[in-house]
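Recap from last week: sequence in, structure out.
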Amino acid sequence: MIKVIIADDQELIRQSLQIILRAEKDIDVIDTVANGVEVIRSVRKEKPDVILMDIRMPEMDGVVCTEIIKENYTDIKIIILTTFDDDEYVFNALKYGASGYLLKGISTKELTDAIRKVYHGTAMINEDIASKVVKLFSKMAQSNLTIHVDKIQTADLKTAEWHMIALVGSGLSNKEMARKLNLSEGTVRNNLSIILNKLGLRDRTQLAIWAVQTGAVNKQFEDNE
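Predicted structure tokens:
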């Protein structure tokens, strides 16, 4: 029996997935939770085989939760099940050890097949974003997976800018960052442009990779600092 936890901040989605999966003889939904913090608590108690993880959840998003779980429970398989195919989300989720990245428009059969395949060790990526993943990792491979920034370039970064860098590394979109920081999306875009210029980086993807590689993504800040 494959033990599954469903993590999604929308109750209707959780209930629908639970009904669908409980109809499968070899799949047992052992818990449903609304955010990443609840996922971690449930994992400690329930010891699932597979987690269906939404990306955008309150308190702790699916990317950060994936990183924490895979660091501590390497055998647990995680399938990101989301409506979003943003480059940063795809990269970070797979980098931290997700075994699958599926969009919520897939069929019931595709979902149940994915759970079984991931459980048995196969990675599953939705066809709609597979080409994007290939291009992204090809770009990273060409740059040897390492983004170099001289210390002198980081010297005049302000605390607020370090905060934005950490959020980009965590996979937040401009809209989510604007809401979290109480800024307009235009201001977020302008500030990110300034940060990229200071660091000599080309785009958000490079910034996200650099934030993860250097540990900047793990810096802790007070909201609205």
